Amino acid sequence: xxxxxxxxxxxxxxxxxxxxxxxxxxxxxxxxxxxxxxxxxxxxxxxxxxxxxxxxxxxxxxxxxxxxxxxxxxxxxxxxxxxxxxxxxxxxxxxxxxxxxxxxxxxxxxxxxxxxxxxxxxxxxxxxxxxxxxxxxxxxxxxxxxxxxxxxxxxxxxxxxxxxxxxxxxxxxxxxxxxxxxxxxxxxxxxxxxxxxxxxxxxxxxxxxxxxxxxxxxxxxxxxxxxxxxxxxxxxxxxxxxxxxxxxxxxxxxxxxxxxxxxxxxxxxxxxxxxxxxxxxxxxxxxxxxxxxxxxxxxxxxxxxxxxxxx
Length: 311
Known about the structure:
Blueprint: H1 12-58, H2 67-91, E1 115-120, E2 134-147, E3 150-162, E4 169-171, H3 186-197, H4 203-213, H5 219-245, E5 253-261, E6 266-276, E7 288-293, H6 300-308
């Protein structure tokens, strides 16, 4: 069954409705594409876990891998899954999002950690009806912060102000956070990201470091933080890459690394590209950008392909 549309005979309202329907279908297709990618990663994770169980049961004792080796791959899978889920939440409209999953109850932060109280009150405590607002309560939320070796807690107190005459309730808005409803502060997330990607500390080692500081943070939780923070930083990464690739002269240097190919049980040669801006460029800042690309080689075609992305 086919339908033929004559745009010349459509009213402006019908045309706008058609465009809105097309945009909605496009957003649904993008959301389904992200969901398919999420399902593929889940399948790869299950295949990996099954392979580990088979190897543990049937392989020779000398060929069994240690738990520390397998945890490196688990961290990568957890990070990718959390990043894809964060992107899905951004693409899906609020009305069509899936049912919220039941998250485990969060344990309170240890009371022995030093606490810094940050109060958030309305700028004006005068009601629109002319009455003075009365403070009737407060909401308290705690965020975990970290400086090397010491955990601290930021205690955000948001007072509730109400008018006895017209029963109006006013409260300061919730401060913006990198992870919505999460406990880590931006400083703690920055510490985890720098330690993992600049200092090359795997998450299982960071878990032990945090445990010695007084709070054991599970590797799965750290992997989720890394994935969500990566999604938040993606616009900055794209802008920085575009700014570098748009320069007149660019120097590039590659470092070969071995990257595991999910599902293939073998590694491929990948390259981490360091791209500094030339010293005589018109750009007023100096930077160096690195990104892994397992599909790219040192060929001239790959170089031209990377250069075209910045135009």
